[in-house]
């Protein structure tokens, strides 16, 4: 009985010190198609600490769940920019944007009209 009480006390104290390291955030990311979706999500998932990434083609909203102990929003944003996609407040480097497939050139009005 005494051993059981010790184990229960140890378990409860351990659980009380456990912290939720996961954070959620959303970002506005430019893109136009399912290829953009795959590229944006892949860039995020390849970032160490990102647990999930889901970009909505219609709303351009990127929903993220990430471990705050392993990464931060600034690092994730940089991954998206390096993939060639603009954020609401930052523009992707032209070199990265120019590598996008022709149908993904969201800065081109003709491409936007086609989607």
Report on this structure:
This protein is α+β, with helices and mostly antiparallel strands. It is built from 5 helices and 3 strands; from the N terminus they run αβαββααα. The chain has helices at residues 2-17, 34-45, 73-82, 94-98, 109-114, and strands at residues 22-28, 50-55, 61-67. Strands 1-3-2 form a 3-stranded antiparallel sheet, covered by helices on one side. It is elongated. The mean pLDDT is 87.
Features:
three-stranded antiparallel beta sheet, alpha+beta, 5 helices, about 120 residues, single chain
Categorize the overall geometry: elongated
Estimated share of beta-strand residues: 15-25%
| N- and C-termini, Cα separation | 69 Å
As a percent range, the share of helical residues equals 40-55%
Number of helices: 5
Report the biggest beta sheet as strand number plus sense, adding barrel if it closes.
3 strands, antiparallel
